[in-house]
From TrEMBL:
One BP annotation, GO: proteolysis
Protein name: Peptidase
Organism for this UniProt entry: Candidatus Sediminicultor quintus
Transmembrane segments: none
One Pfam family from the record: Peptidase_M19
GO MF annotation list: metallodipeptidase activity
PANTHER family in UniProt: DIPEPTIDASE (PTHR10443:SF12), MICROSOMAL DIPEPTIDASE (PTHR10443)
Length: 301
């Protein structure tokens, strides 16, 4: 919306468009509505609606290649038609502006995943940038979890403070996801998950999307590569098994990216590295999307 790019035309800027998704073999993609800081807190909903409108216009202009999907069966139907399935999400619960009615309307507009916070505090909880408070979910936040469970929406704990994370674990009746987070043991950044968080999230049937953001891959001051991404995948496989792992690239949500993963068209490089590490085809398919689809089917229907 801000960079005058279009989804249908291959671009030399950014990380993702339809031509590059086709090159990368992508058939299902989450599209996250991200609310910039200047719109917080009192213009968050308006900005979210503007971005959803932009998303809808791009889908309509490219309807031969991509379609919005709101349930698992639609994903299958769209893929059988040779098109990309687009899942709409919102990154930051400030879009609700403290109103459960807004959550229900956003669900009616097709939103199927909500990242509860970004790095700051909102009406739901504190993000990782406010971790010093030690606070968990607010009373409104608890109601949001209940309502999302009832609506059949994926709860995303990436960016959420650790104390908030544990409240979500206790409250949610359905599996949750960390859409774009890595392993704290390999890279001790606040945005990454500690071993005990990883274990409980996966015990509940959830999925962790390994992100390509260099600062979340390593603290070493060097250029990252595909191998750094696979190190985090290897670590999760060793700790909790392959069924909890997905990809949470953060394409178009970050600046720098690892060598070999500069855009969505480079995803085959990750597949190649997994094959080189001895992963079996069925394991790779789970990592590349089947695990996320399993949770989507269970929670959303």
């Amino acid at each position: 919306m801000n960079h005058k790019r279009t989804l249908g035309k291959k671009s030399t800027t950014g990380h993702l468009d339809i031509p590059r998704m086709k090159e990368g073999g992508i058939d299902v993609q989450f599209f996250a509505v991200f609310i910039e800081d200047i719109y917080k807190p009192d213009r968050s909903l308006k900005r979210a609606l503007q971005l959803i409108d932009c998303f809808y216009k791009e889908i309509e202009k490219n309807q031969d290649d991509i379609s919005l999907v709101i349930n698992y069966n639609q994903i299958k139907e769209v893929n059988r038609a040779g098109k990309i399935a687009a899942i709409l999400s919102i990154e930051g619960g400030e879009a609700l502006e403290g109103d459960l009615g807004v959550l229900r309307v956003l669900h009616k507009l097709g939103v199927r995943l909500l990242t509860l916070t970004w790095n700051q505090r909102n009406q739901i909880a504190d993000g990782i940038g406010e971790s010093q408070t030690g606070s968990g979910l607010t009373e409104f936040g608890l109601k949001v979890i209940d309502e999302m469970n009832d609506l059949g929406m994926l709860i995303d704990v990436s960016h959420l403070s650790e104390t908030g994370f544990w409240d979500v674990i206790k409250r949610s009746k359905t599996p949750i996801v960390a859409s774009h987070s890595n392993c704290y043991a390999l890279c001790p950044h606040l945005r990454n998950l500690k071993d005990e968080q990883i274990k409980v999230l996966t015990d509940k049937g959830g999925v962790i999307g390994i992100t390509f953001v260099p600062n979340f891959l390593t603290q070493e001051k060097r250029k990252t590569t595909v191998k750094d991404v696979v190190k985090h995948i290897d670590y999760l496989v060793e700790k909790v098994g392959v069924d909890c792992i997905g990809l949470g690239s953060d394409f178009d949500g970050t600046g720098d990216l690892p060598l070999g993963l500069e855009g969505v068209d480079k995803i085959p490089n990750l597949t190649e590295e997994l094959l080189n590490r001895g992963y079996k085809e069925r394991e790779i398919k789970k990592i590349l999307g089947r695990n996320f689809l399993r949770v989507f089917k269970e929670v959303v229907g």
